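Dear Dr. V.,

Thank you for agreeing to look over these. As mentioned in my earlier message, I'm a first-year student in the group and I'm still getting used to reading structure tokens, so any feedback on how I've presented them would be very welcome. I ran two proteins. I've put each sequence directly above its structure. The first is here:
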Amino acid sequence: MSSFIPKSNLFRFERSWLLNASFLPSVLPAWLSAPQCSDTAGKLAACLKVTRAAAKTWSWRNRAPPQLIPNCKFIIELLDFFEEQRSLSSDELQTRETCKHRLTSAIKERAAFWKQRSKFKAIKESDANTAFHHAQATVRHRSNQIRAVGCQGQLFTNHDAKMTALSDFFASIIGQPGESTWHFHADTLYSNVSQPSQAPVAPFAEEEIKSALVSMNRNSAPGPDGFGPAFYVATWATVKNQVIEFMNAFHIDDVQLERINRSYMVLIPANLPAKLLSQNLGKNSHCQASKRDPQPH
């Protein structure tokens, strides 16, 4: 069935790109050429924006053909067969080594690509790139489809109606920000005790920031900006200046966080049969998502 649901062209950083020797030299100059901004958060956002555009262009130009791995295997086997009949020339030997090197790189890139999507933590990246990885990624992709939303006793399948129902529901429970008034000073809490350590409120050190990045899961899903921890770890020598400047500005409370403070609101589909779903919608007044609607949209 056709669908008119709009889909934005979201950017997702792929860890497999880091295994290609031409990726970082092609993308990092864009980070260094980002426009200047007075605010450190705006400067960091500008660097990410131009780098994201450069990564998209590189990915489009360096997309491997689908028959790359079979072709490399065929050439290697063909030259091995020729070697049994005669001695290979220097050009043939070099061609076989080039194919072996490219085949190894392609297999590593494909394994990293599917591991990032499968999210199966019990499998290590060094394992074989089997159909199990592909099945895990396919199942996750299919389970993320929400075909119907129930709210206030009604079932919505149209995209605009679902968007309106969800927006109204979450707006009603989030509320409006209020004002907080402190009737005491924090300094007076420790007036009669020994001076606490200043380490928790000391400025961030470069080693501390890098250690936090290294400790993060590099296969975790990227944030709204599209970049995950793997990008910052691999390009730390280039991006550390902007990151450290942002952390220092955050420490002294001199940064506009709204420039980079974005988040996704994710709905969890409810695995309920249609009959049970209709009963629950009559009893509950809250919104509920279903992925088993008889009329998928």
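The second protein is here, in the same arrangement:
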Amino acid sequence: MSANECEGKPQVISSDLRDLGDIHDLNNFQCLLYDGLYLPMAPPKRLEGRSQLENYKSIKDAQLNRDDVILCAYLKCGNHWLFEVLGMLTTGSLLYRKSLPRSQMIDFIYKDGIESLPPPRLLVTHLPLRMLPTQVVEKKLKCIQIRRNPKDVCVSMYNNFRNLAVPKSFEGNFAEFTEAFLSGEM
């Protein structure tokens, strides 16, 4: 991809590179193109000496237990809301957490983080089935998939990204955001 082609778009790094480096676009957005999806890059301090690609690939090899439950959904579809409900049901506690604990999000903790959690585990992901641990299918784990009207998802994402701190915030109008959402560039 030439520099002109990248202008105004997320910088995408090919998944065949070993060292992903520190790549930014105009909005400080970092991503990795892996298995046909744009995935966020972790800050270098969270990579623990491995490349981002190695971390994402490691997820497939994670060891799971039969009592693990995985909550799966696209961004802004209600992961946090349902995570809270399931957490309250499984623990018997009415404790509400204002933010989804990244310590239980497969997309951020990778293989090592998954395996270090004590059972029973309630895991959350935005990844598709093909990128989840192979044991999800082998052990026939419980997966809960959340679906939401795409129009509602688009509006929710727009409002969320518009309210992020600069430079990560979306500064365009709703029509521009909707065009990007529908094009598959999100």
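From my reading of the second output: The radius of gyration is 17 Å. The helical segments are 3-6, 52-58, 79-91, 106-116, 135-138, 150-162, 174-183. Does that match how you would interpret it?

Kind regards,
E.
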